[in-house]
Amino acid sequence: MKKFLIKYQSFIFVFIIILILFPIYTYKLGTIPTNVTGDETTYLNVVYRILFEKNPINPFELMEDHTKAALSFYWMGLIIRLVGFNHTVFGMRLAIVIPAVGTLVTFFFLLRQKTNNILASSITLLLGTNVLFLNFARSGWLNIIAILFGLLMIVFLNKGFKKQQLRFFIFAGLCSSFSCYWYLSGPIYPISAIIFFLILFAFSKERKRYLKYALTFLFTATMIILPIFTMAFLHRDVSVVRPSVVFIFNSTTDNIPITLWKQSIDVAIGLILLDNQPIGKGFENPRYFP
Predict the structure, then answer these.
(1) DSSP string covering 255-268, please?
(2) What is Dmax (Cα atoms) for the chain?
(3) What is the number of helices (H) and of strands (E) in the chain?
C-alpha cells in the first residue's frame, strides 16, 4: 500500500484538487452568475444553429465574431444535448467548467515538474479559487479552452525534449494549433513555441536535432491551423473586424503611448498587487464583477 501511495501520490493530489474545486465550479451553475452575458447568448445562438439548421454548417465556417470555427462549438453542443435543453445555461457553462478543471490539472503537473506535490497543489488551489479564474471557469466563454491546449503544448514540449521522441512534438503541434480554434489570442502558443525553437538554434550546438523537432512541430501545427486560416483569408472582410477593433495600433483616437502606459499600470496594480481598482474601468468590465 505504501509503495502504491508513493508511486501514484501526484494523482492522489489531483483527485483532491478536483474533489475541492468541482463542487465550487458547479454550485448553482445554471443560475449564478444571474446574468447571461452577451458572449454566452451569442455562443448559444451558434450552438442552436449547428444543432437545428436544416442545411449542415461547414465545420470550418467562421462563427460568432468571425474568429472561431463552427467546430469549436461542437463540444458545447454535445454537453447541452447530454444535460437536456431544459438546462441549457447549465450545460453551456458546464462545457467550460470541465476544461477549466482540466487546465488546473495540467497546471498542477507543470508545477510538479519543478516543485513538489504539496507546493504544486497549494498554488493550483490558489489559482482555481482566484476570483477572476473562477468567474471565467463558471461562464460559458471559450477562452479557457485555448489556455488548456496551450498548457498541454508546453507539457508535450517538455516531454519531447526530455525523452527525445518525435511523437511528443507531434502532440505539442496538435495542441498548439487546437488553441487557435477556441479564442482570438490562441495563436500566441504556436508563435511562442516557434520563438522558443529559434532561441534554441541560436544558443545550442545540437541544431540538427532541434531542427527535426521544430519541423515536426511546425508541420503538424500548420496542417491543423490551415483550414481556419484559409477560411479567415477567404472571408477577410469580416474575419479581421474583431482583431482590428481591439488592436491598439489601429486606434485613431487614443494617444497610444499614454494608453499603453495606463494599461501597463493597470496590469501591475491588478495582477501583481491584487488590487481590484482596474476592474471597474470601461463599459465592458462591470460584467466581471459577479
Answers:
(1) -HHHHHHHHHHHHI
(2) 67
(3) 14, 2
Res. 253: pLDDT tops 70: no
> What are the cell numbers at 75?
463540444
For residue 75, the number of C-alpha atoms closer than 13 Å in the C-beta half-sphere is 15
**Cell digits of residue 36:** 447571461
CA 288, CA 162: separation in Å to the nearest integer? 40
Sign of the CA dihedral with 95 first, then 101, 103, and 105 last: negative
Query: What contacts 128, CB < 8 A, 6 or more positions away?
Result: 17, 20, 21, 104, 134, 137
CB 149 within 8 Å of CB 176 = yes
H or E stretch at 174 = helix 166-182
Distance CA 234, CA 226 (A): 12
Chain-centroid distance, C-alpha 191: 15
CB atoms near residue 55 (< 10 Å): 5
Share of residues in the chain with pLDDT > 70 (%): 92
pTM, entire model: 0.87
Question: Who contacts 174 (Cβ-Cβ below 8 Å, separation ≥6)?
Answer: 220, 221, 224
The C-alpha cell that represents 205 in the structure block:
550546438
Question: CA-to-CA distance for 246 and 269, rounded, in angstroms?
Answer: 22
Which DSSP state fits 53? -
Amino acid code (one letter) for 40:
E
Mean of the per-residue pLDDT values of the chain: 88
